[in-house]
Amino acid sequence: MDINQIQINKFQESDTQTVVDLIIHTLRTTNIQDEPAEDIESYVKDITPESIQYKAENVNFYVFKFNNELIATGAIGPYYGSKTESCFFSIFVSPDYQKHGIGTLIMDTLEDDYYYHRAERLEIPASITGVNFYRKRGYDYKNGIKEPDDVGLIFLEKFKKASTP
């Protein structure tokens, strides 16, 4: 696979169901290796067309396609309305395309976004599966907490000097 052939676009409403399907498939295929099935199914209930569209209306949501097939997603937006903090959302790579550098491409794309550049602090609500990947990119445990919260997320953060006011 040539990573340079991946098309990166902003989310369109027509992507909604495919994004829902990709996220659910990834949770049930990849994340299931690190988390109990009942937790995965609890997360799946919250992944709906409405929840994805709402997110896409409030953050910069990107889709990644290879040969016109949606293979990954990632989003970044303000952290609870903050002008100095941003948060990453919905970073998923199809199990069929993992370990090909697509996660790095997603993060490079998100770290080139306006919401990244303006932020002094960034937060990632990470699944257990993604923690090591994000830590290699300079994100560390928020408040030193290494255990998942009650919905299975581990919060990571990075502090930086904002480059855009």
UniProtKB/TrEMBL annotation:
Residues 6-163 form the N-acetyltransferase domain. It holds the Pfam family Acetyltransf_10. One of its GO terms (molecular function) is acyltransferase activity. It is an enzyme of class 2 (transferase). Gene3D superfamilies: 3.40.630.30. The keyword Acyltransferase applies. Its EC number is 2.3.1.-. InterPro entries: Acyl_CoA_acyltransferase, GNAT_dom. Keywords: Acyltransferase, Transferase. CDD domains: NAT_SF. This is GNAT family N-acetyltransferase. It comes from Staphylococcus debuckii.
